[in-house]
Amino acid sequence: MAKTSYKYVIVGGGTAGASAVTAIRERDRNGPILLVGDEKHLPYDRPPLTKKLWFGKKKVEDIFFHDRDFYDSNGVTLSLGAKAVSVDAGKKAVRDAGGNVYAYEKLLLATGGIPRRLAIPGGDLEGVCYYRYLDDYVRTREKAAPGASAVVIGGSFIGSEIAAALNTNNVNTTMIFRPRYLCARVFPEGLGKAIQSHYVKRGVRILSEDSPVSISTRGDRFVTATGKGQVAESDIVIAGVGINPDADLAKNAGLAAGDGIVVNEYLQTSNADVYAAGDNALFPYATLGRRMRVEHWDNAVNQGRFAGLNMAGAREAYTYEPYFFSDLYEFGYEAVGDVDSRLETVNDWQKENDTGVIYYLEGGKVRGAMMCNVWEKVEAARQLIRSGARVTARDLAGAIR
User: Fold this and answer.
1) Which domains does the chain have, with CATH numbers?
2) Which end of the chain is more exposed for a tag (fewer CB within 10 A), N or C?
3) pLDDT tens per residue across span 8-19
4) Global model pTM greater than 0.90
5) CA distance 18 to 375
């Protein structure tokens, strides 16, 4: 097929891609833009898929970043439901699964992440949902009538949020996960166990320190068996066991990549005309002094923005410190920095395991903070992390209120 040329090509129709479109147009009103996305939908906001859509706070039509008129009026060509299959960084061209070839001057890889699959018998059964996309929400919502039953595999962000959403909608919910308590990668043990106890009081069946070994069907229902001999029968099976960065396009194009696509502070890959942003980008986190990926909405929004600006001629380093958030029933939090439960933690509770701040320390310095039912304090936490000061538990008492 003939090659079509664009000044900017964006591969990925998610948060980072949509944010990049807006940023490009701030600096370049006319340069032709092509956005290629695997999904058939216009770019949409992902957090409501496990939050506001389930609680009646948003409708599906509310979650799209822009309507089609926005893209048409801004000279953006959309190729949705189309998968990019290769990048030729030397010839500056992208090919999609239909054989279409698109030449670019600047390319953004905003391909996000791919849900990890369960490597067990039945892990690929039709109807087992690896929850990440709008279509997953639509299909699950149709099945989630009051009195239905669900098994949620995984106890981290996606698993804990979707389990709470299903339970609140009167779906009989069972959770299966390997750690001893919910969100063990980020919650200190006391908080994690307190949150888990709240799930149990709400009627969620918790099978912790366990994992599924098979999924089978019995009629139109699923039967999930665990390593400890437990069995859960359900109408719905959702697996939320993490994602892997979608970096194959970059790797196959010879770009530097490992656990993500390696970028510099300007979000350029090892090829200066190719950028990466979002869940797939392995970037230098300036404040923490190391490379990392951040799989959260705020990072995708802001990296997409900086990538778009830089593609259009800016030279702005991405030194932003992204935050993330979650809501688990009445418990909500905002967090910034490195919130790894393996670090030393200092709890400054105003109300035990409910309201207060958890600090994450390494070498006596604050590396991250989680504000639990404490709001509008993210910037204060950023300043504390940036200071690099050595602190004690006494210093942190009331430091953020």
Assistant:
1) 3-114+243-311 (3.50.50.60), 128-239 (3.50.50.60), 330-396 (3.30.390.30)
2) N
3) 999 999 999 999
4) yes
5) 27
